[in-house]
Amino acid sequence: MNQILILDFGSQYTQLIARRLRQLKVYCEILPYSTNIAEIAAKDLKGIILSGGPSSIYAKDAPKADPKIFELNLPILGICYGMQLISHECQGKVIKSKKREYGFSLLKTSRLCRVPSKGAMPIRRPKKSRIFKGVPEKIKVWMSHGDEVKKMPDGFKKSASTSDIKIAALENEQKNIYALQFHPEVHHTDYGLKILGNFARGICLYKDQWSPSSFLNETIADIKKDVKNDSVICGLSGGVDSSVASILVSKAIGKKLYCIFVDTGLLRVGDKERMRAVFNKKYKFNLKIVDASKLFLSRLKGVSSPERKRKIIGKTFIEVFEKESKKIKNAEFLLQGTLYPDIIESVSVKGPSAVIKSHHNVGGLPKKMNLKLIEPLKFLFKDEVRDLGRSLKMPEEILMQHPFPGPGLAIRIIGDITQARINILKKADKIMRDEIKKFGWYDKIWQAFCVLLPVKSVGVMGDERSYENTLAVRCVESVDGMTADWSKLPYELMQKISSRIVSEVKGINRIVYDITSKPPSTIEWE
After folding, report:
1. Which residues contact 73 (CB under 8 A, 6 or more apart)?
2. How do strand 45-50 and strand 3-8 relate by DSSP bridges?
3. In DSSP terms, which residues pair with 289 in a beta bridge?
């Protein structure tokens, strides 16, 4: 498949580059900057993008890609650190900026003179850079850098500047190398999508119109070919990812798919009942529901560390799942609803984006199970999974449900987990979700949930003083969960949620609303 490769140098925005390209119907993948040149060359590439990153090009351990990427005769776009790397590798000069730029800056694009061939007279036909085709002369852009290019490499031309740095973009049109000091991938940059489109379509000449549904038939054919007469086991959670993955695989192999739903005791009100209604009754799946709630609760007793919670839950889930899977004959494959962000966030290499959290659905399969993985969604983002589900004619009630973490309510209870605290959070969470749906806000929000805090405060309930728990409500808007902003709920809705929870849930006397975005925060609290 034709694609544009993104080499990750550690920018918090690297995934956004991929999302913007996918938005343009351009298929792309992200790999660490240290990826072997042979692996890069083996891909069907139309171009390469070098991401930004937190390092200085002159730092002792500065991340650098194999310089042979410049010998592949592919268009290259460097963004932020990627621009500095190009300048350094092509014998330019990079220095520390006298004035660092963080945030908005006004970019002025330059008219270029064509570079004459060696020995020829200069040709002065000012023209606009291809990377800025259709972009106004002055635009607002998002900067985040402490270094800048002081001297361009031979053969390069300046294509943009700001009031603080003379060289904010440069290029060598003959070699198809382009570089931007700003971040076109963030929504703060005007015409950012247009600039990326100019690179992908105009410079890389990417012609395909990629979409999740475009590889649906190919994926089904591949699954049939791999599985043949064997059986596939799926740890079905009922969320968007596992639901789409299971229905996709069932299209390929029918009743040879066996699903196991593990009730951890950390589910929301109605989750188990919905599983029966949708997958047992509607889709007629081979679905086994296993109640392991007591086991999970006993192993989580006294555990307050978020990472330990995740690992205990992941390990226990696999233990329960393994026990049930042994009862299924001819089981050779395990289906997982792994998404691309799961893979990216779970890979830690020197320099690129640090691991944010462990995903127990990535790399958590015990070798002794001796099952081969099927991950049909592993190169898709969440919104693309929903589009794929629509191609499969799945109900919107399944596709538009809010994400729910694998560890469940365990990571929404800060501190120790007890049955009493689980019950409190379940009741509060149901009230919050019910009110959001009543007000018609459910589909406007990416994710809405409650967090039970290990904080008690004084309150007055009736004529008596109370000393009870604080509950945080978190509602965010997002496209794919990589970045998110807090939802500006109507005050009437916020008041209704607060008054109902305090009145109806014994053990809570104070509600707070989380108004931080991602970044700097994550969506979940743990």
Report:
1. none
2. parallel
3. 261
Active site residues: 80, 183, 185
Q: What are phi and psi of 111, to 5 degrees?
A: -85, 135
Domains of the chain: 3-203 (3.40.50.880), 212-399 (3.40.50.620), 413-513 (3.30.300.10)
Sheet holding 157-161, edge to edge: 28-32, 3-8, 45-50, 76-79, 177-180, 169-172, 157-161, 93-109, 138-151
Cα 45 to Cα 23: distance, rounded to the nearest angstrom: 18
Q: What is the spatial distance between Cα 450 and Cα 460, in angstroms, rounded to a whole number? A: 22
List, in sequence order, every residue forming a beta bridge with 128; answer none if it has no partner.
Answer: 111
For the stretch 496-505, pLDDT in tens is 999 999 999 9
Short-list 266, 263, 239, CA closest to 409: 266
Q: What is the pLDDT of residues 47-77, one digit of tens each?
A: 999 999 989 998 888 999 999 999 999 999 9
Between CA 24 and CA 13 the distance in angstroms is: 17
Residue 307 DSSP label: H
Q: Closest Cα to residue 299, out of 319, 321, 281, 282? A: 319
- The answer to whether residues 473 and 412 touch, using CB atoms and an 8 Å cutoff, is no
Between the alpha carbon of residue 136 and those of residues 46, 90, 190, the distances in Å are 27, 29, 9
Going from the C-alpha of 360 to that of each of 233, 235, 352, 363, 381, the distances in angstroms are 17, 12, 21, 7, 18
Gap between the Cα atoms of 8 and 30, Å rounded: 7
Q: Which letter does DSSP use for residue 59 in this model?
A: S
Q: Which of 258, 236, 266 has its CA nearest to residue 337?
A: 236
In the prediction, which pLDDT does 161 show?
A: 93
Model confidence pLDDT, tens digit, residues 384-401 = 999 999 999 998 889 999
User: DSSP string of 429-453?
Assistant: HHHHHHHHHHTT-GGG-SEEEEEEE
Query: Nearest CA to 11 among 486, 485, 482?
Result: 482
